[in-house]
């Protein structure tokens, strides 16, 4: 086997990311050298590569499915929105520009050469490259400068499979409508369809499948069933569907307008003794044991957003009644005395007053810190082994007597202190993403919050098991031989 195959979707969240992840694991288990690739991604959930670059969280999951270290070639262009009208542009792992929405069309001139360079490098290294599209290929307004869907597929002469989510309703309209809006050459490039998230008996769907094949002349490669409680990273959407009946700890997380890396909290959300709730705008942070402040792509604007929601006052009331607060990355910065952005890195240049719960000041810098780290946490007066990654522009200085949250080191660098814990032991902050993937630190967190001792497994093992479960479903549901015959 030698070649590539691209999975495009009728809509965002049609199942492209998990389809590529499942197929990556399926082919890797068969001994095939396979790698994931997404030309352009727009997401605020990201991961750090071994060499200090940044890629979308979905491509990190797909790399895990292949058994590969993370590479910036897997996702050469990442757009991270920092407002409704603009995004930071990351090319091959590094931030290179900030584009207002009206000039997003310029992305092709800025980044397409790098996209093709990364793709061809992967083609040389691997026998199979599985490519994920972005959004829908039928976005008429974006066709001219498209580098994420058919614009890419046409440039590299790559076959395409179109996936649609029947759980949303209207899947036959989605599939045929998308196909009809493509050019003649693009229609020919589409080799067939996958229907995702079907619930019920397949024979109830057979008439529709027969109609789709007859009217388009293209096969349906398979129908993937709905997979309940799949514990895998979401590319962007927040899934708060988990409900806990016997929780020992209640955790609330405010959904900030630019919330980032909310997948940090998946190990907590799925723990049987933890009730983790994402709190939407207009809802209350009250009546919980721990408030977790997440990362954000625009920390000063989201601090204003929190004040407008009344959340800052609720956090201070929560602390007066003995609750605990932990901030991650941007959430850590908010807990300090001030956040300055003299260069306008995230928004307008200026200084914002923080919550004043930690004696910390933060200055945003033009350069972003991107590194994988490991070390030990001092939370709950313990030395707990931890690991994760840092993605931030801020440099935070601890001015008071607070003890550090952790001591961390990265490849070829000496250990440094990270974050801090308030002198009254109620508030803590850290820059470390991926912190809770270790079961040991989850146990320590719960002990810090409630005094309770619980057991928690390693989230990395859970992820591996869930990727295998995903691959099993795809292998059972799809005509893999027919898919292989499309690879070119």
Reading side by side through the largest sheet, how are the strands ordered?
2-9-1-10-11-12
Secondary-structure-based class equals: alpha/beta
Poorly predicted ranges = none
Which fold name is given in CATH as the topology of the largest domain?
Rossmann fold
CATH architecture of the largest domain: 3-Layer(aba) Sandwich
Number of alpha- plus pi-helical segments: 14
What radius of gyration results from the CA coordinates? 23 Å
Shape designation: globular
Assign a percent range to the helix content: 25-40%
- How is the main sheet built? 6 strands, parallel
CATH class of the largest domain: Alpha Beta
Q: At the fourth CATH level, what is the homologous superfamily of the largest domain?
A: P-loop containing nucleotide triphosphate hydrolases
Give the integer mean of the pLDDT values: 93
In total, the number of strands is 26
- Tell me the domain tally: 2
Strand fraction equals 25-35%
* Distance from first to last alpha carbon: 9 Å
Function: Catalyzes amidations at positions B, D, E, and G on adenosylcobyrinic A,C-diamide. NH(2) groups are provided by glutamine, and one molecule of ATP is hydrogenolyzed for each amidation.
Domain CobB/CobQ-like glutamine amidotransferase: 251-439
Domain CobQ/CobB/MinD/ParA nucleotide binding: 5-232
Protein name: Cobyric acid synthase
């Amino acid at each position: 086997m030698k070649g590539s195959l691209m999975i495009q979707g009728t809509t965002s969240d049609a199942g492209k990311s998990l389809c590529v992840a499942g197929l990556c694991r399926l082919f890797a288990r068969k001994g095939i050298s396979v790698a994931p690739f997404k030309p352009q991604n727009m997401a605020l959930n990201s991961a750090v590569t071994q060499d200090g670059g940044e890629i979308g969280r979905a491509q990190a999951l797909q790399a895990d499915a292949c058994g590969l270290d993370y590479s910036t070639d897997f996702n050469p262009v990442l757009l991270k929105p920092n407002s409704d009208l603009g995004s930071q542009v990351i090319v091959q792992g590094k931030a290179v520009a900030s584009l207002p929405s009206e000039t997003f069309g310029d992305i092709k001139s800025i980044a397409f050469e790098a996209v093709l360079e990364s793709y061809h490098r992967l083609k040389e290294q691997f026998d199979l490259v599985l490519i994920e599209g972005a959004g829908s290929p039928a976005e008429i307004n974006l066709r001219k400068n498209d580098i994420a869907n058919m614009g890419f597929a046409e440039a590299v002469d790559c076959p395409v499979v179109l996936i649609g989510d029947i759980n949303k309703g209207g899947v036959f309209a989605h599939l045929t409508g998308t196909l009809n809006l493509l050019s003649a050459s693009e229609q020919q490039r589409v080799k067939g369809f996958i229907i995702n998230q079907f619930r019920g008996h397949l024979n109830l769907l057979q008439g529709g499948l027969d109609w789709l094949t007859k009217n388009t002349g293209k096969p349906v490669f398979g129908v993937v069933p709905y997979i309940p409680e799949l514990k895998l990273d979401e590319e962007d959407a927040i899934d708060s569907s988990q409900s806990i009946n016997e929780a020992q700890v209640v955790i609330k997380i405010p959904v900030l307008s630019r919330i980032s890396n909310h997948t940090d909290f998946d190990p907590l959300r799925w723990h049987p003794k933890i009730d983790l709730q994402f709190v939407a705008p207009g809802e209350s942070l009250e009546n919980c044991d721990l408030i977790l402040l997440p990362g954000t792509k625009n920390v000063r604007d989201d601090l204003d957003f929190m004040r407008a929601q009344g959340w800052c006052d609720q956090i201070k009331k929560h602390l007066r009644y003995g609750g605990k607060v932990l901030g991650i990355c941007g959430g850590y910065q908010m807990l300090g005395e001030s956040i300055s952005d003299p260069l306008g890195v995230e928004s307008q240049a200026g200084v914002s007053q923080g919550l004043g719960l930690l004696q910390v000041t933060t200055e945003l810098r033009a350069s972003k810190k991107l590194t994988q780290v490991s070390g030990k946490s001092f939370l709950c007066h313990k030395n707990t082994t931890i690991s994760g990654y840092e993605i931030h522009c801020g440099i935070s200085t601890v001015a008071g007597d607070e003890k550090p949250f952790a001591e961390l080191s990265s490849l070829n660098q000496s250990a440094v202190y990270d974050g801090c814990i308030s002198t009254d032991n109620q508030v803590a902050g850290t820059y470390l993403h991926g912190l809770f993937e270790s079961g040991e630190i989850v146990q320590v967190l719960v002990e810090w919050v409630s005094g309770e001792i619980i057991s928690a497994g390693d989230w990395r093992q859970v992820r591996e098991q869930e990727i295998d479960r995903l691959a099993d479903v795809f292998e059972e549901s799809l005509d893999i031989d027919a898919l292989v015959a499309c690879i070119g």
